[in-house]
Amino acid sequence: MFKKLNYSAVLATVILASCGGGAKESKLTGTIAIDGSSTVFPISEAMAEEFRAVQPGVDVTVGESGTGGGFKKFTRSEIDICDASRPIKDSEMKDAAANNVNYLELEIAYDGLAVVVNPQNTWVDKLTVSELKMIWEPAAQNTIKMWNQIRPEWPAEEIHLYGAGTASGTYDYFTEEICGEKGASRGDYTASENDNQLVTGVAGDKGGLGYFGMAYYENNKDKLKIVPIDNGSGNAVIPTNETVLNKSYSPLSRPLYIYINLNALSKPEVKAFIDFYLEQAATLSKEVGYVPCEQQIYDAQKQKLQESAASLPTEKK
Amino acid sequence: MKRKETAIEFLLALCGAITILTTIGILWVLLYETWLFFKEVSIVEFFTDTQWTPLFADKHFGILPLISGTFLTSMIAITVALPIGLSIAVYLNEYAHPKFRRTIKPALEVLAAIPTIVYGYFALTVITPALQKIIPGLAGFNALSPGIVMGIMIIPLISSLSEDALYAVPKSLREASYGLGASRFQTSFKVLVPAAFSGITVSVILAISRAFGETMIVAVAAGLEPRFTLDPTVPIATITTYIVQVSMGDVPQGSLEFKTIFSAGMVLFVFTFILNTISARIKKRFHHKYE
Q1: What is the ipTM of this complex?
Q2: Which of A231, A292, B39, B127 could form a disulfide with B145 if both were Cys (CB 3.0 to 4.6 A apart)?
């Protein structure tokens, strides 16, 4: 489903990176388990695929049980890396501390949440944040059922909603930004942690409206229609690289993270994978439809990684 | 030697006991968790409220939308499977050459061996788009498409059991019918089908019970939105898909939200238990008749 990656560019960076890091030609083995946000999933999945070309002995598995589901496993040391579309919550920090899990947080890209409708929907030109709130807030449950309840000039047709499941970081993020409180959402909609299912839903439903990470819109442009969002400034903006980076696509853009278990980081294969991850983050996050961070942010993340790796006892293999 | 016999007897009894104990264990867990659930939620609300949103801000615990979804997909499945399954049974029993029957019957049962997840994607990626060409208002997730595919899945159940029932009809009845000058068609539908009626009913009830419990097909193709409706063109959720959704997500164990899956499971259990009991009763009476 993703665009073919530019292999030569990737290869060149890999060669450069390996030259810069000294002549480390060692072949690593082992397994790295990743789970968490379905929004970050495409990036980690692409990383795992590319990493296989460099270190075929390392087996990287990537799951997508949602940020909440991922942290649940992460704080029980069941996985090495957790993909997250929001920062770790206090309750999850407590779980981690209780289980002696220490971790490192790295920022890897930006995401815009795309609000989409079916291409056959001819009436929606834009939505304001307050209209989105009206559609999705808890009070709308079993009440807002027709398009003309949102704007009287819109047709008297049923609106069918598709959105993030409660285990997803996207859900926490969307409800907090749109409805004003984390977790405050109506419940009568198709809720799934699997963004592909949401894409399928809106793409096949004339009355459909949904929200999910913009990468899923980028990869399904022909099946969906993007809705420009007006945050009250009077300008309706769609999520693009520029609007996400310059923060004009507000409030629906956010940073994405990976969390690394420090015990896992002391293993050479995990360290090599994270090095690779930060090296490739700009290229691959763009390839799969997200917005890369500015270079100085990546530099800061790399420094953070080196510092915390240096403080770890290295595991003898 | 005697001791060896006793040991073997004990082992055999143990094997039998495992299945019974498992059933008792499951029942106990269901009952216990459901009891805890109803300490917090009124049973009246559970059966009368038309909204089911336990995971969200405005919590409602009305099981009706899940029951309507389950009922709707199962009824569509039976509507598809009964006429086709019964026709196949009659054909195999009355019309087909015995040799042909011996090869085609196991082949039909292969349908039942296809993993349900495959049926689910078949519904989502083949049947739904095809139906959308005929019914323009059909949503991408709906009850109709998984219902039809579920019907195809349970055809072997109906055709096979009905065929057994038709086969068990005493030869004398068939011969008497032909003796009176009835055609094959008349013999099949006016004599054999009524005579095997209870057996056919059993097959239908078992098929409905199978459809009630079916999970993957509806989880993939019906959507995940609990909606109190009998409209087959919009996304719905069934009892089983709700249970899957909650057990895969990050709902904390022991919370009220988590207990909802046991209460939903209990409802499903009661339904299938009633259906299976009815079919067992009918089966008993049916055997009686010809002995």
Answers
A1: 0.74
A2: B127
